[in-house]
Amino acid sequence: MVAHPASTRLAAGTDRPGPTITGQVTLKIEDEPAAFEITIPAGNLAPDDLLPVFQGITDVMVARAEARVRSGGKSISCRAGCGACCRQLVPVSEAEARALARLVEALPEPRRSTVRAKFQDALIALDAAGVLPRVDRVCGEGEGDDDLVDLGLDYFRLGIACPFLEAESCSIHSDRPLSCREFLVTSPRENCAAPSAETVATVKMARLSPALRAVCRASTHGGWTPMVTALRFAAATPPPTRDRAGVEILGQVINRDASEPKP
Ligand code: SF4
């Protein structure tokens, strides 16, 4: 048994004008209750507005998974300075793609131009390798099929680093997507340079990222994209539609079956 905080306070969108609502939510994480006090705007929202809450819940899920790994006598191999997994096809929900585009837009110069150039270079490399049309097709059709598995392998072979990877460390750590937060391994770090099911032991845990992508996909024609195409995707995607109560969106993401097919 590992001691956990009594309740984790999370908030999203509280800088928007208008009333907010606060509710208590208890989830079962790693077979133990996890209590959250969540404050969000009272009106209609989009998944984009709730990203800080999804990130906060994911961080608790990850912390509990790490505690379970430690109590089992193992340790997490992932460290700052190891960015092997940041050359994988990292799936980013539509809401997160828009958030990343805003983040890049808000960067000071010359960093903004540098990061944009890295995104552009990645697109050029994907196109030159004939992978970009496959990315567009698979993202449009959804997740979990064989095409996506093959695409992920071909993508990794290209060795394209995430544009936010600097000195093999994540330069947007507190803003990184859910799928980045959820990826942990216990196998030796060097194995991640040429990953296979036999050599890389990922930590199994409850994950919100597939649910968030699915909820985004259910309300639009896209839903998700690989990290390196996030800026292009966000530019081509209409602004979010705020047509549902935040509580409804929270419930859709939290209660969705996290075992659905995912990359
Ligand atoms: S956002 Fe950060 S953790 Fe995620 S792939 Fe990019 S560099 Fe890696």
Order of helices and strands: EEEEHEHHHHEEHHEHEH
- What's the domain count? 1
Mean pLDDT: 88
Beta strands, count: 9
Strand content: 5-15%
Q: What compounds are bound to the protein?
A: iron/sulfur cluster
What is the number of helical segments per DSSP (H or I, 4+ residues)? Answer: 9
C-alpha Rg (nearest Å):
18 Å
**Largest β-sheet summary:** 3 strands, mixed
Instruction: Calculate the terminal CA-CA distance, rounded to whole Å.
Output: 32 Å
Helix proportion range: 40-55%
Are there runs of 5+ residues with pLDDT below 50, and where? 258-263
Spatial strand arrangement across the major sheet:
1-3-2
Structural class: alpha+beta
Principal-axes shape call: globular
What do these coordinates show?
The chain has one domain. It has 263 residues and is of the alpha+beta class. The strands form four sheets. A three-stranded mixed β-sheet has the order 1-3-2, with helices on one face. The longest helix is centred in the first third of the chain and has 21 residues. It is globular and about 50 Å long. α2 packs across α8 and α7 crosses α9. Bound molecules: iron/sulfur cluster. The site of iron/sulfur cluster has 11 residues, from loops.
Features:
single chain, 263 residues, alpha+beta, 3-stranded mixed β-sheet, two-stranded antiparallel sheet, 9 helices, 14% strand, binds iron/sulfur cluster
Please provide a brief summary of the model.
The chain has helices at 51-71, 94-106, 111-128, 132-141, 146-158, 178-181, 209-219, 230-236, 246-255, and strands spanning 8-11, 20-29, 32-41, 44-45, 91-93, 165-166, 169-170, 224-226, 244-245. A hairpin with a 2-residue loop joins strand 6 and strand 7.
